[in-house]
Design brief:
heterodimer; A: 257 residues; alpha/beta; nine-stranded parallel sheet; 12 helices; 48% helix; B: 400 residues; four-stranded antiparallel sheet; 14 strands; amino-acid biosynthesis (chain B); TrpB-like_PALP (chain B)
């Protein structure tokens, strides 16, 4: 399913989107499949599946540790696309990874593998808009959305440049810093949302971990909330993962209705 | 070619949150690089604080033994014991002009961290340095030096616990504190404009050599040899000679235990000799990586060369044949460490020992010509414990 179709469907139902992130292969590929099913049962509308990289500079310790667990368990791009192809998630899947893995595989092949396996969009946190022309062309050729980030320090000119290139949704970073759960997101989110004017859905991430925060973000005008570290923490605990992931997804989704 | 590129290398591959900071840094550098007040202050610090200019020393005994004229550019005599201060003075001054209050840096051997701690203390910055836990252990006197000067040293526990991981952590700090913090990168690596800025501040080395060698020999050298991890001393001494094509330029990489790799680790740090095209820590360059693009951990007896990437300009110069990348292994570097200490009474850093080792190895081949300049990028005091612990082993081989 395409990302925009999902947003259109949600709009008809007067709902906002819950986008959930987990790292593919953490702790292993089979468990990832179960986790994705649980996320979708709990109400996740889009699932971001991290393709782990050895040096994830935009991520905090939680997701870095998840990436390392996945790499240690043998996850690699070949297995990642096999895993995606074997899923029937029923919601759009987005690949989040770092540029060297894409560059090494070849931009066209990477985009083609995404399309072939069932990935709808790509997020590359170390690829700013200025460096993305070639990947943008490859994604367009294969019908894949390339999703860019906007942060609290992104100025007006850059916002325009980013919005020109982004499709699917635009990823709005609610505060400075790397990924990880924190509490002070509402104010900075209101401020940044007021500066981003676009028809593309606005998804806010970084620092959201519970229903109350998700509700604040939605009330501030976001079309979606993105939650990563809170789910990854549950996976890391290895304790009753599927049930707890489903339960957190349900709680967060209730703020999006 | 884009301004930020060297051939196909370079660029700015960083999280979006850092792009405004990189643009701000580039604008500030363009504004102040020719500003008389900035240049006057820079010259003052270089002379009075760093102790420039450094001598171009004729290594008489070494020359006699190896049958070629060998000059040593004595960056080991810069305050702090390495060339690193050239760049930290320049960048810290720039940060001061930009109104930043806080400096962060990464360090491998501790020399760049120490140099950052020095300028941080001297110019009144809050200073924090990230250092891999493995390097903290093998360079703990440098850690203490930094702490003495009021710098907070973070021991990085992730990944290979060396320079690459220290850079990752410094980048994360910068992402979080970008509004008041200048990230003082220590080598010609990372996103544009860093490779250019660091190269320019380090070019003082090559510019001095140009004048000094004419004074002493009436001509340019046949070759210049410098060790290369990230490559800041190499670019610093090479850059003023790039247009002088008769001067051969040799960056010597850490061959470690030989140019082999395992599944997760390279047994060397030779990115120019054995790396592949890739994107690492903000730049497109040559990188030690596996078939999927995962970054391999590097290895070297020398903490300062123990890095999985290399400066993008060096990668470009290698591509076009202007520099000739080479490498020596750990054992050869250790031999050179002893040799220079005994023949000249100068204890070189293990990094610089790689450059000396290449000269020792190639002097008879005719490859280097009759007049060689070696960048003695740092002094070896910081490495004494490493060498001592290796010597205690009956067999001095590092790679067993």
């Amino acid at each position: 399913m395409k990302i925009l179709e999902k947003f259109e469907q949600l709009e008809k139902n007067k709902e906002k989107a819950l986008i959930a992130y987990v790292c593919a292969g953490d702790p292993d590929a089979d468990t990832t499949k179960e986790i994705v099913s649980s996320l979708v049962r709990g109400g996740a509308d889009i699932v971001e599946l991290g393709l782990p990289f050895s040096d994830p500079v935009a991520d905090g310790p939680t997701i870095q540790a998840a990436s390392q667990r996945a790499l240690d368990a043998g996850m690699n791009p070949d297995r990642y696309f096999e895993l995606i192809a074997s899923m029937d998630a029923g919601v759009p899947l987005v690949c989040m990874t770092y540029y060297n893995l894409i560059y090494k595989r070849g931009l066209d092949k990477f985009a083609s593998d995404c399309a072939g396996s069932g990935i709808s969009g790509i997020i590359v946190p170390d690829l700013p808009a200025e460096e993305a022309d070639d990947l943008h062309a490859a994604c367009r050729k294969h019908g894949i959305d390339l999703i860019f980030l906007i942060t609290p320090v992104t100025n007006g000119d850059r916002i325009e440049k980013i919005l020109d290139r982004t499709s699917g949704f635009v990823y709005i970073v609610s505060r400075l810093g790397v990924t990880g759960t924190r509490v002070d997101v509402a104010q900075s989110t209101r401020e940044i949302l007021s500066r981003v004017h676009t028809e593309v859905p606005k998804a806010v991430g970084f620092g959201i971990s519970d229903r109350e925060q998700a509700a604040e973000i939605i009330a501030a005008g976001a079309d979606a909330v993105i939650v990563g570290s809170a789910f990854v923490n549950i996976v890391a605990s290895a304790d009753n993962v599927s049930e707890r992931v489903e339960s957190l997804a349900r709680e967060l989704k209730s703020a999006c209705k | 070619m884009k301004r930020s590129m060297y051939g196909r290398y370079g660029g700015q591959f960083v999280p979006e949150v850092l792009m405004p900071a990189l643009n701000e840094l580039e604008e500030a550098y363009e504004r102040y690089r020719d500003d008389p007040r900035f240049l006057e202050e820079l010259a003052y610090y270089m002379k009075e604080f760093a102790g420039r200019e450094t001598p171009l020393y004729f290594a008489r005994n070494l020359s006699k033994k190896y049958g070629t004229k060998i000059y040593l550019k004595r960056e080991d005599l810069v305050h702090g014991g390495a060339h690193k201060l050239n760049n930290t003075i320049g960048q810290a001054l720039l940060a001061k002009y930009m109104g930043k209050k806080r400096l962060i840096a990464e360090t491998g051997a501790g020399q760049h961290g120490t140099a950052t701690a020095m300028v941080g203390a001297n110019m009144g910055f809050d200073t924090e340095v990230y250092m891999g836990a493995k390097d903290v252990q093998r360079q703990h006197m440098n850690v203490y030096r930094m702490q003495l000067m009021g710098t907070v040293v973070h021991s990085v526990q992730s990944g290979s616990k060396t320079l690459k991981d220290a850079i990752n952590e410094a980048l994360r700090d910068w992402v979080t504190n970008v509004e008041n913090t200048h990230y003082l990168i220590g080598s010609v690596v990372g996103p544009h404009p860093y490779p250019m800025i660091v190269r320019d501040f380090q070019s003082v080395i090559g510019n001095e050599v140009k004048r000094q060698i004419i004074e002493k020999e009436g001509r340019y050298p046949d070759s210049i040899v410098a060790c290369a991890g990230g490559g800041s001393n190499a670019m610093g001494i090479f850059h003023p000679f790039i247009e002088n094509r008769e001067v051969k330029l040799f960056p010597v990489e850490a061959g470690g235990c030989g140019l082999k790799s395992t599944k997760k680790e390279a047994l060397h740090s030779a990115s120019l000799c054995a790396g592949e095209d890739g994107i690492l820590q903000g730049a497109h360059t040559r990188v030690l990586q596996d078939r999927y693009g995962q970054i391999l951990e590097s290895s070297s007896v020398s903490a300062g060369l123990d890095y999985s990437g290399v400066g993008p300009e060096l990668a470009h110069l290698a591509d076009i044949g202007r520099i000739k990348p080479c490498n020596v292994n750990d054992e050869e570097a250790l031999e050179a460490f002893y040799e220079l200490s005994r023949t000249e009474g100068i204890i070189p850093a293990l990094e610089s020992s790689h450059a000396i080792a290449y000269v020792m190895k190639m002097a008879q081949s005719g490859e280097l010509g009759d007049l060689v300049v070696v960048s003695l990028s740092g002094r070896g005091d910081k490495d004494l414990e490493t060498v001592f612990s290796l010597k205690k082993k009956e067999n001095r081989r590092v790679c067993l």
